[in-house]
Design brief:
This protein is 54% helix and 0% strand. By secondary structure, the protein is an all-alpha fold. Among the domains are: 16-81, no CATH class; 83-218, no CATH class. The longest helix has 40 residues, at 243-282. The protein is extended, with a radius of gyration of 32 Å.
């Protein structure tokens, strides 16, 4: 840990970081700005963490508590808001090329919102970064992967898809794989690995061989086709019921299992009745022919 710098205005810092800020300000012969008005501070926090302005009730509650602890409680409350996850997920979804349309030609609609909601939920649950990365890239490969983890891997299916007539399907399937490799390198490693798709990278230590080694990891999706329909999602698909739908499906499956169990109990009686009926038919005299 570095030594704390000496400052002239010793009453200003409230924590060790403040001392570094004040030391630089004093070196530049500048004075700290005055502390923000509580209403302005509330607005800053709310806009920064949720993207929304505070309500009149929020302002009244904050102003009613003049203690410094009120600010900490404010931050905790805003972080607990579902709007926080939406705000944080917004920029991430841009980097992950999220879209509810296929992105080419007629830009037809498709459903990717289950992945979007997973990202929002991950931020709201404060999911650890290493787990966030793992489930994004390979959630479906985890042992006994849950539906949530498989949905997270939808990150790899966010690429644009083309339904343009006359395309070469294998060419565009390869485009989708290259997109995954480039996006993964950009958002998780901060590298423009896509440059090495055509040649060794001019600035970063990434060779063309490195790029296609990364490419190979994502060239494993079975049944994917380069030609996509303009509307709807493309195979391979995964059923992704919402929690209430999953509960309803569970109830229906339990009812079905009970009905099948009840039906199975009738099976011995059915076999016995059928055998009795067949025996009766075999031992009944053939009736006289009916007149034509």
């Amino acid at each position: 840990m570095p030594d704390l710098p000496k400052v002239q205005q010793t009453s200003w810092p409230r924590n060790p970081i403040d001392r570094f800020i004040l030391a630089r300000l004093e070196r530049e012969h500048l004075k700290p700005a005055p502390e923000a008005d509580p209403a302005i501070l509330l607005r800053r926090v709310s806009l920064d963490l949720t993207g929304l302005p505070p309500t009149a009730t929020d302002l009244a509650d904050y102003l009613a508590d003049p203690t410094y602890a009120a600010y900490e409680r404010l931050v905790d409350r805003v972080l607990a808001s579902p709007r926080y996850g939406e705000r944080m997920a917004f920029r991430w979804m841009e980097a992950a090329r999220y879209g509810d349309t296929n992105g080419y030609q007629t830009d037809g609609a498709r459903d990717m919102w289950r992945w979007r909601d997973w990202v929002i939920g991950a931020f709201n649950r404060n999911m650890p970064w290493d787990r966030f990365i793992t489930e994004h890239i390979a959630g479906d490969l985890l042992p006994n992967a849950t539906l949530s983890q498989r949905i997270a891997t939808g990150f790899n299916r966010n690429q644009r898809t083309s339904g343009e007539g006359g395309i070469i399907p294998e060419e565009y399937r390869s485009e989708y794989v290259a997109d995954r490799a480039q996006t993964t390198a950009t958002v998780f490693m901060g590298l423009t690995a896509g440059c090495a798709r055509c040649h060794d990278h001019k600035f970063d230590p990434i060779s063309q061989k490195d790029f296609y080694s990364l490419y190979a990891f994502f060239n494993q999706i079975p049944d994917e086709k380069g030609f996509a329909w303009n509307y709807g999602n493309e195979e391979p698909l995964v059923k992704a019921p919402l929690p209430d739908q999953e509960a309803k499906l569970g109830e229906l499956n339990r009812n079905l299992a009970r009905a099948q169990a009840d039906f199975s109990k009738l099976e011995p009686g059915r076999r016995q009745a059928q055998a009795k009926w067949e025996h009766k038919i075999r031992n009944t005299e053939t009736p006289d022919a009916l007149p034509s």
